Amino acid sequence: EKEAFMRQSEQLSTITQMSAGIAHEIKNPLTALKGFMQLGAANPELRDSYNALLLSEVNRIESIVNDFMMLAKPASSKQLEPVNIKQMIDYVLELYQSLIAEKAIKVHTSINCGEFTLESDPNRFKQILINIIKNAIEAVELKGTVCIDVFCDYSEAKIVVKDNGKGLSEERLKRLGEPFFTTKKDGTGLGIMVTRKMVDDLGGTIKYSSEEGKGTCVTIAFPM
Ligand code: ADP
Ligand code: MG
Q: Which residues make Cβ contacts (< 8 Å) with residue 180, sequence separation at least 6?
């Protein structure tokens, strides 16, 4: 009973901290929105020039809310279905094709799944791939490389996403998954935390290895 109480108060404190963090992250773009709207109201001729700024602040709020909503989904709502891993990866690459083209990134994909089919929750699975592949694409320089290798056997499906981007120091590697830990100007620092939760919901594992200046390798594995 005491243990349950401890667990509950720990959960409550995590929720409190998370809510405070989210509120704080959303407050900045909201303040900016309010300011630009007030300026626009006073100076109608300038409204058009504020539009792009308004939109970028709204986009910022949207990405924070999107990332966060993935956390709120109860684990029990997962719908297991056969998932075509190759199709999912193609979909995600399609999503980021303009960024990939802009940075002239080379993407190598190799799928070694034979006749094995993974049963998973397609929504979570897709979101996991999106978060990991997006980070890899963002980490590489111009003309960088991202390799996606998939191996399946009777026991597991393993997906390895490797990039030759800027990598992470040991200190930063330890902080991965900490809410709001980001090194990006437009980052939310929620992606990895949400990814970990979803991988966990699906009974899988996730591992990061990285070397500063060399690149990062993310391995996720799901039971078959
Ligand atoms: P965000 O992408 O919004 O910053 P994430 O939770 O997805 O939030 O990632 C947190 C941080 O982890 C990133 O800001 C970055 O510093 C680091 N990171 C994640 N993936 C990689 C990667 N493939 N290579 C280098 N750094 C990474
Ligand atoms: Mg990210």
A: 21, 25, 188, 189, 190
Residue to mutate, 135, 146, 196, ligand 1, most ligand atoms under 8 Å from C-beta: 135
Distance (Å) of CA 102 to CA 60, 99, 149, 162, 213:
21, 5, 23, 20, 21
Residue type, 135: N
Q: Is 179 in the pocket of ligand 1 (CB under 6 A)?
A: no
Q: Hey, what are 124's tokens?
A: 């979570």
C-alpha dist (Å) from residue 193 to 20, 49, 102, 105, 128: 16, 36, 28, 26, 11
145 lines ligand 1 (CB under 6 A): no
pLDDT digits (tens, 9 = 90+) for 171-216: 999 999 888 899 998 888 888 988 998 899 899 999 999 999 999 9
